[in-house]
Amino acid sequence: MRVPDFLIREIEAKDNEQMAQVVRDVIIELGAPKVGTAYEDKALEDLHAVYQKPRSIYYVVEYKGKVVGGGGVAQLDNFEGNTCELQKMYFLPVARGRGLGTEIINLCLTKAKEFGFEQCYLETLPYMKAAQKLYKKNGFTNIDGPMGNTCHYSCDVWMIKKL
Predict the structure, then answer these.
(1) DSSP 26-77
(2) What is the domain count for the chain?
(3) Which residues, listed in sequence order, are joined to residue 157 by a DSSP beta bridge?
(4) Of 33, 72, 76, 150, which has the fewest Cβ atoms less than 10 A away?
(5) Strand 157-162 versus strand 141-143 pairing type
(6) Neighbours of 129 (CB within 10 A)
(7) pTM summary value
(8) H-helix or E-strand containing 104?
């Protein structure tokens, strides 16, 4: 599925600042806490470098030359199993409701399977209802507690999908 005027592509170094701003803007917009969430992740300063490690990839959504969203997948931190994490899925309002979230999830899960992961984990916040609906629509189910240690202790909705 292609959405007119929107381009999905792998992250490049030139996208770091814009994508960090998207994440922080969405967290503020939704009234999420800045601590214990992606807002304070050091990884935001150089997302491109973070996703150059093996078995990881990050996609950005570009609209009229500006990064307006993105999402990625990588090994779940501090977890021994063959589990990846769907990470940093954030979209500015202009990119929402257009099927771009589903497209990013599909790209990420396809890559996760290629990388050999057996399941995909994610964390979100209880009041991010639209995100939870999107994840459930794409086969994620709720679990009772966190896996690994992402340092996102403010995120207390945990979901998993077998690949």
Answers:
(1) HHHHTT--STTSGGG-GGGGGHHHHTTSTT-EEEEEEETTEEEEEEEEEEPT
(2) 1
(3) 124
(4) 33
(5) antiparallel
(6) 11
(7) 0.93
(8) helix 100-114
